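Retry 2 of 3 after timeout on previous attempt. Resubmitting structure tokens to design endpoint.
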């Protein structure tokens, strides 16, 4: 029986995978969902250690590692370190939307977005997480994959509708720019596959059947 380890997004819990797990289990997989470390003390090393500890504690054997949002970034990092992993899956995980930007001046766009992030990071835990996201080069992480890596992106997040007009314009430019970058990575990095789903950010809650189908199809 093949194992699957499932990771939640920032501020979320393992319960978010409740709709996907039955479909994977019906296909013959053993699933385990875990929570991740607290955001105020977040580090990529600590998150990867939590994944390794869960695998050891539960006797998982070469599990598929799939995560949503922040958990998806952890899964992508796992793919750079574990060539024995049969599949890593990042479900709509992104770093700070400061670049690459398509259709706006990159310096001005980054200035606008960083000002917005600073304004909304008065909480120490949020500020800490923003700094940790800044430290992660996501395109380089994808290119460094050593096992198959599936990146599932939402195409109808609606985030721009919640933002001030100038910030929304930059966020839309980020969606275009990062989409182009990701397509380029997939063309030149054989281990990386990409898929889009017409959902909001919580892809695994809005389209659980499609997420399960994509995971199974890429094994």
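Retry 2 succeeded. Sequence:
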């Amino acid at each position: 029986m093949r194992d699957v380890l499932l990771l939640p997004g920032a501020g979320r819990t393992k319960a978010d995978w409740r709709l996907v797990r039955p479909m994977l289990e019906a296909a013959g997989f053993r699933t385990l969902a875990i929570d991740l470390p607290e955001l105020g003390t977040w580090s990529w090393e600590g998150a990867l250690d939590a994944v390794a500890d869960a695998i050891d504690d539960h006797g998982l054997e070469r599990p598929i590692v799939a995560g949503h949002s922040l958990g998806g970034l952890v899964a992508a990092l796992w793919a750079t370190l574990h060539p024995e992993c049969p599949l890593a899956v990042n479900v709509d995980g992104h770093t700070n939307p400061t670049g690459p930007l398509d259709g706006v001046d990159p310096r001005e766009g980054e200035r606008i977005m960083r000002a917005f992030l600073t304004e909304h990071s008065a909480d120490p835990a949020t500020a800490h997480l923003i700094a940790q996201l800044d430290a992660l080069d996501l395109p380089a992480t994808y290119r460094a994959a050593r096992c198959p890596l599936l990146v599932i992106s939402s195409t109808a997040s609606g985030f721009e509708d919640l933002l001030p007009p100038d910030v929304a314009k930059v966020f839309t430019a980020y969606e275009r720019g990062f989409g182009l970058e990701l397509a380029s990575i997939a063309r030149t990095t054989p281990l990386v596959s990409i898929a889009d789903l017409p959902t909001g950010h919580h892809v695994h809650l809005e389209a659980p059947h499609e997420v399960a189908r994509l995971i199974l199809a890429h094994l």
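Attempt log closed. The mean pLDDT is 96.
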